[in-house]
Amino acid sequence: MSDTLTLRRPDDWHLHLRDGAMLKGVLPETARHFARAIIMPNLVPPVVTGAQAAAYRDRIRAALPDDMRFEPLMTLYLTEDTDPDDMAAAHASGLITAVKLYPAGATTNSASGVRDFERVRPVLERMAEIGLPLCVHGEVTDADIDIFDREAVFIDRVLDPIRRATPGLRVVMEHVTTSDAVDYARSGGEDLGATITTHHLVINRNDILVGGIKPHYYCLPVAKREEHRLALRAAATSGEPTFFLGTDSAPHVDPLKEQACGCAGCFTATNTLSILAEVFEQDGALDRFEGFVSLHGPRFYHLPVNEDTITLTKGDPVVYPAKLDTGEGPVTIFDPMMPLHWRVT
Ligand code: NCD
Ligand code: ZN
């Protein structure tokens, strides 16, 4: 097995960059390795209009160090008041690449999300018409549904009915965490894709809860049983174009993670490619690594693959810092609990 690996430059199909000092702190961590990323719109207040998306894109461009190149692929946050014309214009001008659906209350900054799915039907129909993909946070929020079941229940109660009612709607199941979601994604044909995060390939729910609670492993959707992690590993390393990387790298400063009610989100931008190379090597799938990180995403989004390449080299374990200092405070970098031998050179 060769000790270097050259692949087309990867993209991240689900990323939280935040704003202000945090944006400035975390953006280089992604831009160093990735050419493009789908930028999540769950700011406070959320990015709901084309004008807001354009302003946010400009703030991201302004925060990028001069010596780096990076293309933010903007999204709109779907609300019950989203204006289909504004959305369609933002898509036609090339400003937005997708629209994000958060069920209200499902995760960080999702209060403005959708409660009544009937109310967004005209928007979804318009999206199907113009070929604008819908990125879905797939969890129900009903108080009586156990948190570990929320993804599977969402597929039956919400996602499948929406897809049946809206033929032609292109959907990305974001950050899938269960074998149920993997199976459903596989059954969906060309109009259905699924992103998988770095951390869900590494941790299961024991890692969060056994031997003391580990707030830095808490994210949403929450990591599930080991059998589900193994299903995600099999999907990610399968070479099937349905599955592609969306890190869901989601920075929160340590004081907000390490408190009585800690925020959800794992920050993986810094060491994602080292972790993924290790995972693919462990599973004997290094030949499918490029597909997962660089080829399947552009194929789903009907975008060209990146022309330039990156090279990873295998050697002594790479030591990443435990924290990234941002202008807002320290952010803990995801600890994969295993030595990492691949570095981006
Ligand atoms: C994300 C965040 O912090 O914005 N948190 C997370 O646990 N993944 C929101 C999200 O993508 O659900
Ligand atoms: Zn996310």
Key terms:
single chain; 345 residues; alpha/beta; TIM Barrel; eight-stranded parallel beta sheet; three-stranded antiparallel beta sheet; 11 helices; globular; binds N-carbamoyl-L-aspartate; binds zinc ion
Task: Provide structural commentary.
Helix content is 33%, strand content 17%. By secondary structure, the chain is α/β, with parallel strands linked by helices. It has a single domain, classed as Metal-dependent hydrolases (TIM Barrel, Alpha-Beta Barrel). An 8-stranded parallel β-sheet has the order 2-3-4-5-6-7-8-9. The longest helix has 16 residues, at 150-165. The protein has helices at 20-31, 50-63, 84-92, 121-130, 150-165, 179-186, 205-209, 226-236, 254-257, 272-282, 289-301; strands at residues 4-8, 12-15, 36-39, 71-77, 96-101, 134-136, 171-173, 192-196, 243-245, 309-314, 323-326, 329-332, 342-344. The two termini are 18 Å apart. Zinc ion binds at residues 14, 16, 40, 248, 250.
Say which molecules are bound, naming each kind only once. Answer: N-carbamoyl-L-aspartate, zinc ion
CATH class: Alpha Beta
Give the low-pLDDT segments: none
Number of alpha- plus pi-helical segments:
11
**Strand line-up of the largest beta sheet:** 2-3-4-5-6-7-8-9
